[in-house]
Write a structure and sequence with these properties.
Strand content: 15-25%
Structural class: alpha+beta
Helix content: 25-40%
Oligomer: single chain
Shape: globular
Radius of gyration: 25 Å
Distance between the termini: 53 Å
């Protein structure tokens, strides 16, 4: 850190590398003012800055937006963190907080392996090397980039107070002209939870998110907004799972999406599309029963049959082994009695659900009808999201409303300056991340949205070069596979097919892969980095599925991840 000493004695940090200038400033709308034009105009530039000026490595994630039916929705706008190679930076991984429960896989790998389980050998190798993925990869890259520039990181210094005098803030023995509060949300603070949130939640984030920064900002006179909002998720919690000494859990959206599961309340009734995006599913838990004044759908259970247990992992347990903390019943009635569920209600729900699921229908909640629903489904089954529950014994797993973090907090303007109750900037006080109020209010358009708007900022010069919107530094190609209608042959040769793709991934050619969610039968979407489409075609000609005639259709398209799926351009390669 290059620290100068201005006349008032307040250190002002400056951050520069290879002539880089940090994105900052803005001209859109504030965190209290709705969807900002600033995000649309400058987020691409902020990502480019991270790519060019830091060790952050991002790749396109072929997910659909969470509301594909909304105008302007697209696929592939999210970005995934590529693995951060711990072998190059010994000891770094040990300095960082470990993942709450995810193994060392990328988000793209998690999506691709949703129905099959993870590659244990790959995870073991990464763990041995100190490699980090997902948020850990992002933090590792940012910490290393900062320290390479001489930034000093002071860990273990709790900030108890924030005082302003003579144009400077004082905190934890440090004086600074400007302070950025970026301490996360308040989801682990029971007092703040009870004060602001509409229903109890089970946090699955870092237990250090106790609202310290929020309360420091409030003490400084800041205004707040969207305080009832959370980044919601349905949670399944192993009673033995502890993180940082606190009971925690894991997201249940994959388990609820796969065919052969339903979610019911104490009446034995379904109350939501189980495959909808996790944020909106979580909102269903807010419903109050006017007759009792209690939450109508808390508690809730995911119910599955033995065919589901045999086929899919549940809560981190391998396929074929139900979690030890799941309830079991040889019959539907026995299972209901063990859980305190109305047996008649559950029996009626299953009878109706099974009739419709056998036909690939869900007339009540339309499960599996959208691209988003099917993205994490099982593309190898007759329907990726629906199957009857007919084979006992049956199992029930408690599902709780949970959160990745709160998204209400300090009101900021487009420059990240914290505003007081009159809408005026508090001198030298900034906020970023979940300590600040989200620009999305109570919506969640797609994966990565809690982080994306926080990285916004215009070009340092305030201008754009003429080719800025058409330039990309990555040559990416999307491959669309549609499989032949031969489920037995596909299952038989799938291990060889996956080995071939993993080899391409290991060689750095295949960026991500996942099930094809659009219509036209089962298939896959793969993203390659290559010099030309012909090169991709050559790699795929050796795919066992291709050799054996199990690929009914193959398309290769140029893809610029900056534009989303609507900018996929067909290429003349079969």
């Amino acid at each position: 850190m290059d620290a100068g000493e201005p006349p008032d004695g307040c250190a002002v940090p400056r951050l520069r590398r290879r002539g880089a200038r940090l994105p900052g400033g803005g001209h859109g709308r504030s965190s209290a003012g709705g969807a900002p034009a600033l995000v649309r105009e400058t987020s691409r530039e902020a990502v480019r800055w991270l790519d060019e000026q830091t060790l952050v490595a991002l790749a396109a994630l072929p997910r659909p937006d969470y509301h594909p039916e909304w105008p302007g929705a697209a696929r592939g706008r999210g970005l995934d963190n590529l693995p951060f190679d711990g072998a190059k930076y010994p000891g770094l991984s040990a300095r960082l907080r470990p993942p709450t429960y995810f193994p060392t896989i990328t988000m793209a790998e998690r999506d691709a392996w949703a129905a099959t389980g993870i590659d244990a050998e790959l995870v073991a190798r990464r763990d041995a090397e100190g490699t980090r993925t997902m948020g850990g990869a992002l933090v590792a890259a940012l910490v290393t980039s900062a320290e390479e520039r001489g930034v000093e990181i002071l860990a273990g210094r709790r900030v108890e107070d924030l005082a302003y005098a003579d144009g400077c803030w004082t905190l934890a023995g440090v004086r600074a002209r400007s302070v950025v509060l970026a301490s996360g949300g308040f989801e682990w603070n029971p007092r703040l939870q009870a004060a602001f949130l509409p229903n109890p939640v089970t946090p699955i984030s870092a237990p250090s998110n106790t609202g310290d920064g929020l309360e420091l900002g409030l003490a400084a006179g800041a205004a707040v907004a969207t305080m009832v909002g959370v980044w919601g998720v349905p949670v399944l919690a192993d009673p033995a799972h502890v993180y940082d000494g606190h009971p925690s859990g894991r997201m249940a959206n994959v388990e609820l999406t796969l065919p052969g599961s339903i979610l019911v309340d104490a009446r034995g009734r379904r109350f939501v599309n189980e495959a909808t995006n996790y944020h909106d599913l979580n909102k269903a838990f807010r419903t109050i029963d006017p007759a009792t004044g209690t939450h109508a759908h808390i508690p809730a259970w995911m119910v599955v049959d033995s065919a589901y247990v045999a086929r899919y992992p549940i809560g981190g347990t391998p396929a074929g082994t139900p979690p030890a903390w799941a309830q079991r019943g040889e019959t539907v009635a026995e299972l209901a009695l063990r859980c305190g569920i109305d047996p008649d209600g559950l029996a009626a729900t299953l009878a109706e659900f099974n009739r419709n699921a056998a036909l690939g229908r869900d007339p009540h909640f339309r499960r599996g009808e959208s691209v988003q629903d099917r993205h994490l489904g099982d593309a190898t089954r007759p329907h990726p999201c629906l199957a009857p529950l007919e084979q006992g014994p049956y199992h029930a797993i408690p599902i709780s409303p949970g959160t990745l973090g709160t998204c209400g907090g300090l009101v900021t303007d487009d420059d990240g300056r914290v505003l007081d109750r009159h809408g005026r900037p508090i001198p030298g006080l900034y906020a970023a991340g979940n300590v600040s109020a989200t620009v999305f209010d109570d919506a969640y358009p797609g994966g990565g949205r809690p982080w994306g708007p926080r990285s916004r900022g215009p070009s340092p010069s305030g201008e754009r070069s003429p080719d800025q919107l058409e330039r990309t530094d990555m040559a990416l190609f999307a491959v669309i596979y549609r499989y032949a209608d031969d489920a037995a042959a596909l299952d038989e040769h799938r291990p060889r097919h996956r080995d071939h793709l993993r080899g391409l991934h290991g060689a750095g050619h295949l960026v991500v892969s996942g099930p094809l969610a659009e219509g036209g039968g089962p298939g896959a979407l793969l993203i390659f980095r290559a010099e030309a489409a012909e090169q991709v075609a050559g790699w795929l000609d050796g795919d066992p599925f291709k050799v054996l005639g199990l690929i009914a259709e193959r398309e290769i398209r140029a893809w610029n991840p900056a534009f989303g799926a609507e900018r996929l351009a067909p290429l003349p390669v079969s």
